[in-house]
Design the sequence.
């Protein structure tokens, strides 16, 4: 039996998320803004939560309708039979997101939907559900975007981008899901060398190592929200986890991370150790503008999150860094580069100076920051 699901992802990488869902479970996904919509079985969504590298949360869609008022929110929510999803002794919470112009807040939406859940369950069972806003057994998520309203169950819990292997926090760390999406977009083959020459805390090379070694990112999590849903087959989940544990490999790969900062290299190595891939990624302390001087550093695919200049560096300094980095890269080898930056004009000028071909550009939100992700031949 299949159900409808909405999965949130990085805005700008919806196509990569849709591709990954099809690759993992064979489901065709429709791309929306910051999310994808697809049909799948409950067991397939268990697999997605364990294996997805680009999704954030996977929501079991209960209802989608057009609403204008809080009374409409109540009506649509109360029409759902929550006894199919919540047991008597369980607590619940409603998380709401409101986008657009409305004469009420997201808190109002959550309160109205929450009351509808209580009333709907009471009418079916005579039992009043408990609300627990901190650690609910069942988390109900709803979004109102203009007049488009949907409500569903969070099967994931906290966002899948929280891999839980970071023991060193870089001040400008890249989301793991963005790192994985960039690697996928590069079309990197695991047999080829890949380098992040400004690796900071090591997110990009670590994610590359997890991909190459077929290590499921869900194995780093203690729990998923679906673990408390009574209609989930617990035995299937445990078997899926054991299968994931046994499916990784210990082959040798040419995955490199370098940075000009010894402190960051040490932190990246600690993160790689926490992720169990310290023997897969080779880290070294190198100035990215002098890559061509390092003889034993193989370069074919480069995926990088360079400084943007927003916090500390002036625009001209950033542009000079980009020019010198791309120049060194061009002298070093020939290959493909994927880079993310909020200083896109400076990066474009640096590309022009070095005569590099742009193969594609994506506009991607990294948190609240709008960035550009460039795919280039060097």
Sequence:
């Amino acid at each position: 039996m299949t159900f409808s699901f909405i999965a949130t992802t990085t805005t700008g990488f919806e196509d990569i998320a849709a591709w990954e869902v099809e690759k993992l479970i064979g489901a065709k996904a429709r791309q929306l803004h910051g999310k994808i919509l697809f049909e799948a079985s409950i067991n397939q969504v268990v697999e997605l939560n364990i294996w997805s590298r680009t999704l954030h949360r996977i929501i079991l869609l209960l209802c989608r309708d057009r609403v204008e008022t809080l009374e409409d929110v109540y009506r649509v929510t109360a029409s759902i039979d929550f006894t199919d999803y919540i047991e008597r002794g369980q607590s619940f919470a409603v998380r709401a997101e409101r986008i657009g112009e409305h004469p009420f807040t997201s808190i109002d939406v959550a309160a109205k939907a929450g009351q509808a859940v209580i009333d709907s369950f009471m009418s079916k069972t005579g039992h009043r559900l408990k609300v627990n806003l901190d650690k609910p057994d069942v988390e109900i998520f709803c979004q109102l975007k203009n007049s488009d309203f949907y409500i569903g169950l969070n099967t994931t819990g906290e966002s899948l981008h929280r891999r839980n292997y970071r023991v060193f926090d870089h001040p400008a760390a890249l989301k793991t899901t963005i790192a994985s999406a960039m690697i996928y977009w590069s079309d990197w083959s695991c047999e080829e060398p890949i380098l992040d020459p400004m690796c900071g805390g090591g997110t990009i090379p670590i994610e590359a190592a997890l991909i190459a070694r077929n290590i499921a990112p869900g194995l780093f999590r203690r729990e998923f929200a679906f673990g408390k849903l009574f209609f989930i087959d617990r035995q299937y989940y445990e078997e899926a986890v054991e299968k994931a544990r046994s499916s990784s490999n210990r082959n040798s790969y040419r995955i490199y991370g370098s940075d000009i900062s010894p402190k960051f290299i040490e932190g990246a190595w600690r993160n790689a150790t926490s992720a169990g891939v310290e023997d897969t990624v080779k880290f070294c302390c190198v100035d990215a503008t002098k890559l061509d001087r390092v003889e034993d550093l193989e370069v074919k695919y480069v995926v990088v999150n360079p400084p943007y200049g927003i916090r500390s560096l002036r625009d001209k300094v950033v542009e000079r860094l980009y020019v010198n980095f791309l120049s060194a890269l061009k002298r070093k080898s020939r290959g493909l580069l994927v880079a993310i930056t909020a200083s896109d004009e400076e990066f474009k000028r640096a590309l022009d100076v070095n005569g590099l071909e742009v193969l594609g550009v994506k506009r991607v939100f990294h948190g609240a920051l709008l960035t550009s992700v460039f795919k280039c031949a060097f």
The longest helix spans residues 106-125. The chain has a mean pLDDT of 96.
